[in-house]
Amino acid sequence: MRLKVSLFALFLICAGQALADEVKVSHGGITLNASLEKAQDDWTAGPVVLMTHGTLAHNRMEIMATLQEMLKERGVSSLSINLSQGVDNRKSVMYPCENPHRYKYDDAAEEIRAWVEWLKGEGVGNVAVLGHSRGGNQAARFAAATDDPAVKMTFLLAPTTRAPGYAEKDYKRRYGKDLMPILQKARDLVAAGKGDEMISPVDFIYCKETSASADAFVSNYNPDPNRDTPTVVPQIKMPVMVIAGTEDKVVAGLIEKMEPIADGEQVQLVVVDGADHFFLDLYSEDVADIITETLGVE
Question: What's the whole-number mean pLDDT along residues 202-217?
Fold first, then answer.
């Protein structure tokens, strides 16, 4: 059964790449692109789910493409955005590690905002933002900062958590190096007005011996309590739903951190038994059902 579902998901992705509308918007001097799935001719009546992918990924990765198709089957339109990572008209592929890294962590929230404005310009007045993994934290940060009445709901799919000292421990584990001397070098460059200066070679996020600007390094590694999504959730004024899998080995302690916060009304926690970080196979169907039911689409 799982094999059949996986093959079906692959078919949906291929079909979605052929049928989804590619849309573009200008933002900060570069072109952003996204995939728009219209569930019906009057799709602007909404709701429309605005989807943000995870770390160094893209808008047509399996979880994004499959979820778009499954939502479409259920009558829900969606816009899966491709975070630019500072690249003009970035393609739907994983960000190459050999490319220079110039993007800041909070660039994502500004790009989400730009796409909300695009949807409003199309006549959409009911937007639900959704983010997966790191994109879940970035979507949460956007939701906490916005007071736009068009944004009605936030869905956070396996959003990242961050314990104090996590960055230093993870950097040491991943690269066998101390983070703080490199971070201090980047901070000094930023303080001297040289945030655009590249540090190379440097280990950055998932990429070994790449190059990154001082601004990008500071933005991605400076201690920030809001990198922990359960810390951000209480700051969001609209309804929030966090969807977590019991077998998620990527995000640590999400369910335990969310349980004291979830009141079942303003903040909901939905736990999908057996699902991993990417909600593959039948679990994607579960997520699509949960979103559709929550949005009240019949």
Answer: 98
